[in-house]
């Protein structure tokens, strides 16, 4: 039961978004998601689920298909478009073309202290492992880890102040067809 509660908390909004995308109203989507999780509480769930998000999305889509078929039989026809979640590659390609977002992130990156910029550049732009960064810079593992961690933390703070994260989320939502 605790497992399903945590899934409900974590994935409820995503499942509602899927239902809304397929033409259901917000209230209908909320009702369908609630019923979906209530039904899960009554069923035996497989012991080990490696990827609960994928499992839930697949099960939920099947539920929506079953619901559509039953409504179709009753004469309540609702057109369901083919649903496409963008792949990681599609998301990356669209993000790479958003020049305003890239410029904003670059400006936040330039505000970082040099020690943070250096290790972030080596790790994420040059693709070096932590061990390789240690070998190239002479810093300790802990220093490299701390600089990466604090650098990313500073980037998040700068981006939150400028509401870039909000723009990024809105951009990601626009990717859904």
From TrEMBL:
Coiled-coil residue windows: none
Ranges for domain RNA polymerase sigma-70 region: 8-73
Residues annotated as domain RNA polymerase sigma factor 70 region 4 type: 108-155
Cross-referenced Pfam families: Sigma70_r2 (PF04542), Sigma70_r4_2 (PF08281)
UniProt keyword list: Sigma factor, Transcription, Transcription regulation
GO biological process, one term: DNA-templated transcription initiation
Family annotation (SUPFAM superfamilies): Sigma2 domain of RNA polymerase sigma factors (SSF88946), Sigma3 and sigma4 domains of RNA polymerase sigma factors (SSF88659)
Signal peptide interval: none
InterPro entries: RNA_pol_sigma-70-like, RNA_pol_sigma-70_dom, RNA_pol_sigma70_r2, RNA_pol_sigma70_r4_t2, RNA_pol_sigma_r2, RNA_pol_sigma_r3/r4-like, WH-like_DNA-bd_sf
Keyword Transcription regulation set for record: yes
Molecular function, one GO term: DNA binding
Family per record: Belongs to the sigma-70 factor family. ECF subfamily.
Protein name: RNA polymerase sigma-70 factor, ECF subfamily
Organism: Niabella drilacis (strain DSM 25811 / CCM 8410 / CCUG 62505 / LMG 26954 / E90)
């Amino acid at each position: 039961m605790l497992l399903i509660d945590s899934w409900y908390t974590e994935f409820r909004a995503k499942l509602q978004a899927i239902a809304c995308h397929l033409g259901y109203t917000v209230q209908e989507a909320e009702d369908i998601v609630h019923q979906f999780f209530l039904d899960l509480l009554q069923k035996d769930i497989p012991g080990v689920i490696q990827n609960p998000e994928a499992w839930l999305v697949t099960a939920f889509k099947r539920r929506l298909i079953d619901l559509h078929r039953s409504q179709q039989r009753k004469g309540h026809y609702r057109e369901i478009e083919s649903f496409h979640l963008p792949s990681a590659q599609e998301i990356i390609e669209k993000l790479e073309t958003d020049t305003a977002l890239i410029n904003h992130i670059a400006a936040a990156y330039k505000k970082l202290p040099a020690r943070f910029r250096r290790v972030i550049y080596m790790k994420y732009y040059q693709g070096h492992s932590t061990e390789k960064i240690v070998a190239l810079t002479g810093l300790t593992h802990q220093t490299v880890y701390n600089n990466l961690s604090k650098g990313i933390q500073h980037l998040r703070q700068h981006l939150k102040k400028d509401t870039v994260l909000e723009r990024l989320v809105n951009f990601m939502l626009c990717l859904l067809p």
